[in-house]
Amino acid sequence: MAVNAVRPRGRGSSWSRLVRTYPQLFIGGGALLALAVAAAVGSGLTPYDPAATDFGAVRQAPSLTHPLGTDQLGRDTWSRALYGGRLSLLVAVGTVGLSLCAGTSLGILSGSRRGWVDNLIMRVMDGMLAFPALILAMTIAFALGPSVGTVIVALAVARTPPLARLLRAQVIALSAREFIEAAVAVGARPGRIALRHYLPNLVSLLLVQGSLTGGTAILTEASLSFLGLGLPPPAPSWGGMLREGYLYLEVNPWQSFIPGMLIFAGVLAFNFLGDGLRDVVDPAERWRRQR
């Protein structure tokens, strides 16, 4: 009797299964990678200077010369969109890094020390949460003046309070676990406990929160630029392009449509990435999908 040999699974089949199991992770990651590559090599993808004006080509529709048209000053929309993406992604990465560092430090310190330290940190966070995130970011950006660093600091400060409160709750829950009690019993220092025990158990949560913060940062930065509190012109930004284009919606809708779609794509990509990371790091969701 013939016995059919079992073919071992190749690397290609395992990759295709991963894509089918976590489609949002690969869609979000692929879209962000494409945006990052386009923004990084933007000068090689267009022959136009994003700040160069051409009054003989004002408010043109998409053509072979200008694939995405031009704005009210004859500037190429494609080149401005690429350079604007560089700014948006830089702000998103900076906001994620700064807010994660601040929120993680405050959350672990508050949840592990308790007492007056916990009360002081949480009351400050509650006071900051009393202001809508956009209003708080607008206030900081107005006080410090327009610049990329100002926008990153403003957005990071606005995103730190909810992250600190979330991590504090996780740290309090971890404090009741046996391995934390054992570390305290043997006299481990608070810094060692935070780095060796708390932080590794918060990595999955930080990955998800970081990806969602990136999408929020792109949207909030565009809002600040639209309101005139982002980078001053002629520096291109997606929000600034929307602000310049909404006055010409009837005669040149492409001028606002392109940056609006890019903002939508960037935020959606970060949200897809966050949902995909959540599915990967959540054991129950991972088991359900792999059944």
In short:
The protein has helices at residues 11-21, 23-40, 42-45, 77-113, 115-129, 133-144, 148-175, 178-185, 190-198, 203-226, 238-245, 254-281, 283-290. With 291 residues, the protein is mainly alpha-helical.
Protein model, in words:
The chain is mainly alpha-helical and 291 residues long. 72% of the residues lie in helices and 0% in strands. It has helices at residues 11-21, 23-40, 42-45, 77-113, 115-129, 133-144, 148-175, 178-185, 190-198, 203-226, 238-245, 254-281, 283-290. Helix 4 packs antiparallel against helix 5 (115-129), helix 5 packs across helix 7 (148-175) and helix 8 runs antiparallel to helix 9 (190-198). The model has no long low-confidence stretch (mean pLDDT 81).
Q: Please report the distance between the alpha carbons of the first and last residues.
A: 33 Å
| Count of all domains | 1
* Poorly predicted runs of 5 or more residues: none
> Would you identify the CATH H-level superfamily?
MetI-like
Assign the structural class, choosing from mainly alpha, mainly beta, alpha/beta, alpha+beta, or little secondary structure. Answer: mainly alpha
**Count of DSSP strands:** 0
- Can you name the CATH architecture? Orthogonal Bundle
Report the CATH topology name: MetI-like fold
Helix content: over 70%
Largest sheet: none
Q: Radius of gyration, Cα only, in angstroms?
A: 24 Å
Task: State which percent range the strand residues make up.
Answer: under 5%
Compute the average pLDDT: 81
Global morphology: elongated
The topology string of helices and strands comes to HHHHHHHHHHHHH
Total helix count?
Answer: 13
Main CATH class: Mainly Alpha
